[in-house]
Recover the amino acids of this structure.
């Protein structure tokens, strides 16, 4: 049996790539324990109050603005994930099983939100909402305090629209290896279409559906550009809040928040990858 010797340059290149990718994250985590308030130079590990080296994390959880931004972010992410998963799964099943007029155009349109720059989508969604709200407010002659404006609802709708193509593509990839004879056998045994879907189809494609849901949840958690264009009063998310802090001063509190956010996203991405590779 012949064996191929791995080139040391290939190993060195891989190590350099990983260092380039993860060194900024490691520095960010280390600076979340910085004793300096300016967070420009690392002056040692902070050790204040009962929290000790986790002082900035304790300050973070005492911040009401952070807690409100966290609540908004989770509400948006969970709601958009729920609806985008349902719609994306239905779209994947329809594209995989049925032939209809405009099917090729529908398949191609799924890639537009993925390849289109987010800033272009954000501006387009902003113009759409502004025009629609302006027309509705004028047509119904709504009072100033009753007019439709940007807020939590517009962010949720935008995230749903942005996440649907990702869910559809992930679920459809799972459907490529689906054996339709299992559904036919269930129907031959007396099950109707709803029972067949609930007890045969859905359990078999569940890893793909959950992987798509995890991907949609991660995209919603991290999204800044589309949220920036569609947010309004009372709908500040954590990415928007961090951006606001960075415009004033970078403190270790920002690093602590970013560290927690990175850990949450890594866990969600890990779960998503596990579901995608599960047989």
């Amino acid at each position: 049996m012949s064996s191929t010797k791995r080139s040391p340059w290939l190993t060195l290149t891989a190590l350099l790539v990983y260092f380039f990718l993860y060194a900024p994250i490691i520095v960010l985590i280390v600076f979340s324990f910085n004793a300096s308030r300016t967070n420009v130079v690392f002056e040692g590990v902070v050790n204040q109050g009962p929290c000790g080296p986790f002082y900035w994390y304790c300050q973070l959880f005492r911040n009401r603005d952070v807690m409100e931004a966290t609540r908004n972010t989770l509400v948006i992410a969970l709601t958009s994930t729920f609806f985008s998963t349902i719609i994306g799964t239905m779209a994947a099943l329809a594209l995989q099983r049925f032939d209809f007029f405009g099917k090729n155009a529908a398949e191609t349109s799924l890639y537009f939100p993925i390849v289109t720059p987010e800033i272009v989508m954000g501006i387009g969604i902003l113009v759409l909402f502004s025009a629609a709200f302006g027309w509705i407010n004028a047509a119904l002659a709504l009072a100033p305090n009753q007019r439709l404006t940007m807020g939590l609802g517009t962010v949720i709708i935008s995230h749903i629209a942005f996440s649907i193509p990702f869910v559809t593509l992930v679920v459809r990839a799972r459907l490529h290896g689906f054996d339709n004879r299992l559904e036919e056998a269930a129907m031959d045994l007396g099950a109707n279409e709803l029972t067949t879907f609930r007890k045969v189809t859905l359990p078999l494609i569940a890893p793909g559906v959950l992987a798509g849901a995890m991907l949609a949840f991660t995209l919603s958690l991290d999204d800044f550009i589309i949220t920036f264009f569609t947010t309004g009063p009372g709908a500040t998310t954590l990415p928007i809040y961090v951006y606001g802090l960075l415009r004033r001063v970078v403190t270790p509190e920002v690093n602590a928040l970013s560290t927690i956010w990175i850990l949450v996203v890594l866990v969600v991405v890990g779960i998503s990858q596990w579901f995608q590779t599960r047989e």
Q: What stands out?
A: Residues 64-97 form the longest helix (34 residues). The radius of gyration is 24 Å.
